[in-house]
Specification:
By secondary structure, this protein is α+β, with helices and mostly antiparallel strands. 28% of the residues lie in helices and 23% in strands. It folds into three domains: 225 residues, Nucleotidyltransferase, domain 5, CATH 3.30.420.590; 99 residues; 138 residues. The strands form eight sheets. Strands 21, 22, 23, 24, 25, 26, 27 and 28 form an eight-stranded antiparallel sheet that branches. A six-stranded mixed sheet has the order 11-6-1-2-3-12, with helices on both faces. Helix 6 runs antiparallel to helix 9.
Length: 644
């Protein structure tokens, strides 16, 4: 048998392995925590209520739940979430098992009613994948527009091309599950059904959700042939259940692409709102969730209490900047959307392998600074590894070696007299990592590398494998658990370093100067206006613009601009509510000319820049799809000037 580790990947040599995974492609926004006002010292009830709240977050985001007031109530709640009927049948064979503590993917199906076997099954307005990774402490979301044309897979039916929501209307949850799996190649570990009619009740029990409404939304042409009624004015505000549902489902004057963005915005906002409700409110929320949500895992079973708790604490301890919203690029069309499979594969790859460094790289490019990668643990450049094939898959060792090299690990070859195959055969179920105990920090190096594999054991180098090391610190024997991808992003290859681009702006103080002057007397803080705007933009003619309103007892202003593209609106929010929930999730800050600017990223996209001065905050907010470049956003924010 010829070696499966290509020559030339060793020390000082270039890469020339085949570099291809043996499977289809493996196929974000920062989070921070705030409290307003500062809470009193937590007692037992408060700590338990806090836990309940984070379990509710899980359900809203991943399909978890909330506990009642006792252990038995918790089990009763979990039993209430158990899958039934066709959801249970869909999960029995179509949902894959995931081991505790490993990355997991949930498919959330949002419909306007529960699926029934006869009659109108309802509509699946939402199809969203959410992935949690305890190793990298990352959460990523990927949504699929309901109007996206794909190949529909329904058991008992031949495949056909239609809008993706046809999978649900044709054969219920099993259709959505099998269609998403065929489209993405992603194994699904949890299947969650959310009834949107109950969505209103859940949001109301939360006390509403604070949403940044990007522009004026109005429609009163309802009825069988019309759209849902909606009447929202622009600005950051508290939405009740019915208004929140209208907002996330709206697509009257834009498209499903923007509806997807609104849905993902809501998920993050709902998570924030849980920090603001009292412990006594959790039971009511739990009841609303139990009535309208089902959660299934492998074998058609429900989620157990221990799993629920583990996910709840995972979300509770999620670091800031570890929440990624992934969008499918290259989508074209209006009511019928299409996207090249290559763009879908790219989105899936970013979803499955989110890069926690994406915001830092993008921020450095936007500011025309050099990006300095942070190295945690042992520097990979100091760790030398020999990779052997222990699973019999042709090229597996070469692929693993290439991927380790992309993460800056130094790849060596066995001595020329030995092939890069495990000396004890190809029946290794798990990847095994042997370390040379005579070398410094070898065991720690092995544990660090083990985190890159979905299932790996660590042990000292044995006499049988020692001849293959060739001086390496580690010998990695690739097992059957290796599916062609390492866990986590490559520090050098997952997200290429972006380049600085000139801002797409024009100096135009007159665009809004007179408008802002006309309302300055209506707020108690100093009003500012943009002297620099996006070159393609103009003031949105839809009144009220600017809007002046009250926000939780504070005064606020929203100025709205349109780029001319349907659905693309950006704006400037000004308020003296300086502890608004939206301000908690900051990434970076810079001071220019003595003025402090705070940057809020969604993955590599700068979604908001906030200026703090004169006892107020001034927000420059990007479009729903983050159409304005990072450089443009910074230039607009730096161009804000107080009225004289």
């Amino acid at each position: 048998m010829r070696t499966t580790l290509k020559r030339g990947i060793g020390r000082g040599a270039g890469l020339n392995g085949n570099g291809h995974a043996s499977l289809p492609p493996g196929v974000i926004t920062p989070m921070a925590r705030y409290r307003q006002p500062p809470p009193p010292r937590s007692g037992l009830a408060a700590r338990f209520g806090k836990f309940i709240g984070w379990v509710i977050v899980l359900l809203l985001m991943l399909g978890g739940g909330a506990l009642g007031g006792s252990y038995l109530a918790g089990h009763d709640f979990v039993n209430g979430l158990a899958p039934r009927g066709l959801l249970k049948k869909a999960a029995e064979k179509g949902v894959d098992y995931v081991a505790p503590g490993k990355p997991a993917v949930a498919l959330i199906i949002g419909s306007d009613r529960r699926y029934i076997s006869h009659g109108d099954p309802g509509r699946s307005d939402t199809l969203m994948l959410i992935r949690t990774d305890p190793e990298t402490k990352m959460v990523s979301m990927l949504s699929f527009p309901r109007d996206l044309n794909v190949e529909i897979h329904c058991p008992g039916h031949g495949t056909f091309v239609a809008k993706i929501n046809a999978a649900y209307s044709t054969c219920g949850p099993v259709g959505s599950l099998e269609t998403i799996k065929a489209l993405t190649g992603v194994p699904i570990n949890y299947l969650i059904s959310v009834n949107f009619i109950g969505f209103v009740d859940i949001v109301n029990k939360l006390g509403g959700v604070y949403i940044d409404v990007d522009r004026r939304y109005f429609n009163n042409h309802t009825g069988p042939l019309g759209y849902a009624a909606i009447n929202l004015e622009p600005g950051y505000q508290l939405l009740n259940g019915r208004d929140a549902l209208s907002f996330v489902r709206y697509r009257h004057t834009d498209s499903d692409l923007f509806r997807v963005a609104r849905q993902q915005m809501f998920v993050r906002a709902a998570k924030d709102q849980l920090r603001r409700i009292s412990t006594t409110d959790y039971l009511g929320i739990a009841g609303a969730i139990k009535r309208n949500v089902q959660v299934a895992r492998s074998g058609g079973r429900g989620v157990d209490l221990t799993t629920l708790k583990n996910y709840a604490f995972f979300f509770h301890n999620l670091p800031g900047g570890h929440f990624l919203q992934v969008r499918i690029q290259g989508i074209e069309g209006g009511n019928d959307l299409t996207a090249p499979q290559s763009d879908i594969n790219d989105a899936v790859n970013r979803f499955m392998h989110p890069d926690v460094t994406a915001a830092a790289k993008a921020n450095a490019a936007a500011l025309n600074e050099k990006y300095h990668a942070k190295i945690t643990g042992i520097n990979p450049k100091s760790i030398f590894i020999t990779v052997l094939n222990g699973n019999g898959v042709t090229g597996a060792a070469a692929v693993a070696g290439t991927q380790l090299h992309a993460r800056n690990y130094q790849i060596l070859q066995p001595p020329s007299s030995l092939q890069a195959d495990s000396p004890d055969g190809w029946n290794h179920r798990r990847t095994r990592i042997f370390y040379d105990a005579s070398q410094p920090r070898a065991k720690a190096s092995a544990k660090q590398v083990a985190k890159l594999f979905s299932s790996a054991s660590v042990g000292p180098l044995t006499p049988r494998f020692s001849p293959y090391a060739n001086g390496a610190t580690l010998v990695v024997v690739v097992g059957k658990s290796y599916q062609g991808q390492l866990i986590g992003p490559s520090a050098t290859a997952s997200t290429p370093l972006p380049r600085h681009q000139p801002p797409h702006t024009i100096r135009y103080p007159g665009a809004s100067l007179s408008l802002m002057r006309s309302i300055r007397h209506r707020v108690p803080f100093r009003v500012e206006y943009p002297t620099v705007i996006d070159r393609s933009s103009r003031i949105d003619p839809e009144p009220p613009n600017p809007r002046v309103y009250t926000l939780l007892g504070h005064r606020a202003i929203r100025l709205v601009f349109t780029t001319g593209v349907p659905g693309q609106y950006w704006g400037v929010e000004e308020t003296n509510w300086n502890n608004a929930p939206a301000l908690a999730e900051k990434n970076f800050h810079r001071t220019f000319g003595g003025r402090k600017f705070i940057f809020y990223y969604s993955g590599a996209n700068l979604h908001m820049v906030v200026l703090r001065e004169f006892g107020a905050t001034y927000w420059v907010v990007n479009t729903l799809d983050d159409a304005l470049s990072n450089e443009t956003m910074i230039a607009i924010a730096r161009g804000l000037r107080p009225l004289s």
